Amino acid sequence: MNETQGSWFTRGRLLLIAVVTAGIVVPGVLRRLLGEAGYNDLGMVVFVLGYAGMVLVVWYGWIRPLEINGPDDQQH
After folding, report:
1. Is residue 52 part of a domain?
2. How many angstroms separate the Cα of 25 from the Cα of each of 11, 46, 47?
3. In terms of CB atoms within 10 Å, which of 12, 54, 62, 71 comes out highest?
4. Could you report the per-residue pLDDT of 5-18, keeping only the tens digit for each?
5. CA separation for the pair 74, 76 (Å, rounded)
6. Listed residue (21, 22, 47, 18) closest to 32, CA to CA
7. Residues 58/39, Cβ–Cβ less than 8 Å
8. Phi, psi of 8 (to 5 degrees)
9. Nearest to 24 by CA among 48, 4, 41, 8
10. What is the pTM assigned to this prediction?
11. What are the C-alpha distances in Å from 33 to residues 14, 48, 71?
């Protein structure tokens, strides 16, 4: 690795990995375990809530702060 580029594990990437792990991997594993234990509906609810929570965190943390505007002055 080129030393001038720095580490691959930046703060943003580590945070993204943590959010995806908490929002998809953990609820997915819990859904599987609950499904095997006979609680398939509860497992589905756990997964949906985990995924929806991840979507809200991504929206609130990354998408909401973006300023998406068109051009300020329009020339006719």
Report:
1. yes
2. 20, 12, 9
3. 54
4. 678 888 888 888 89
5. 6
6. 47
7. no
8. -70, -30
9. 48
10. 0.72
11. 27, 15, 51
Query: Domain residues for 26?
Result: 11-61
Task: Say if 38 falls within a structural domain.
Answer: yes
| pLDDT value of residue 5 | 64
Measured between alpha carbons, how far is 52 from 23 in angstroms, rounded to an integer?
8
pLDDT tens for 17-64 read 899 899 999 999 999 999 999 999 999 999 999 999 999 998 998 888
Q: Using the structure block, give the residue that is written with the tokens 């691959």.
A: 8
Q: Is residue 48 part of a domain?
A: yes
User: For residues 26 and 50, is the Cβ–Cβ distance under 8 A?
Assistant: yes
Length of the chain: 76
Q: Which residue has the tokens 């990995």?
A: 17
